Amino acid sequence: MMMNTTLNPLRGLRLETMAQALEQQLQQSGISAMSFEERLALLVDREVHGRQDRRCARLLKTAKLKYPQAAIEDLDSRSTRGIERSAVMSLALGEWVNAGHAVLITGATGAGKSWLACALAQHACRRGHSALRLAGSSPGRGTAHSPCQRHLYALAGHAQKY
């Protein structure tokens, strides 16, 4: 009964993971050998990691990635692919995110642009950043485009000439 007076306020404070960890501690027989500070540290650690996991899951769900399983660690950087692993790893460090920059990935059809974009977005989400994958299409495919989109397509076409 005494534990309910602790568990209910924890849940009221939205510390559900900590409350679950406390219930698990109470069911373990050898937990009493640990000091109060050690047990409290375990509870706080579980809550912090639980919040990080939920935040990452929410960010990944919001990003709506085409390839949610894409991971930067699984990048195939064989020389035949034409991908510089060092360039991709520097992108994975996230300095471009901290600087507020965007990444534009171009290449031939089937080169893995979408997968690479999803891998970078997934890595950014794991680091606590939000991500948005924008897939462009060419104008003139029966899709209405805003003047801004037409301007971006014109810029993209201009950049491809060089």
Architecture overview:
- It is a single chain.
- By secondary structure, the chain is mostly helical.
- 55% of the residues lie in helices and 0% in strands.
- The protein has helices spanning 4-12, 16-27, 36-63, 85-92, 95-98, 113-126, 147-160.
- α1 packs antiparallel against α2, α2 packs across α3 and α3 (36-63) packs antiparallel against α6.
Q: Give the helix tally.
A: 7
Principal-axis shape equals elongated
What structural category characterises the helix and strand content? mainly alpha
Low-confidence stretches: 147-162
Largest sheet: number of strands, sense, barrel closure: none
What is the alpha-carbon Rg in Å?
23 Å
Mean pLDDT: 80
Task: List how many beta strands DSSP finds.
Answer: 0
Q: What's the order of the H and E elements?
A: HHHHHHH
Strand content: under 5%
End-to-end Cα distance: 74 Å
Q: Helicity, in percent?
A: 40-55%
Summarize, please.
With 162 residues, the protein is mainly alpha-helical.
Compile the SSE list and pairings:
Layout: H1 4-12, H2 16-27, H3 36-63, H4 85-92, H5 95-98, H6 113-126, H7 147-160
Helix pairs in contact: 1-2, 2-3, 3-6
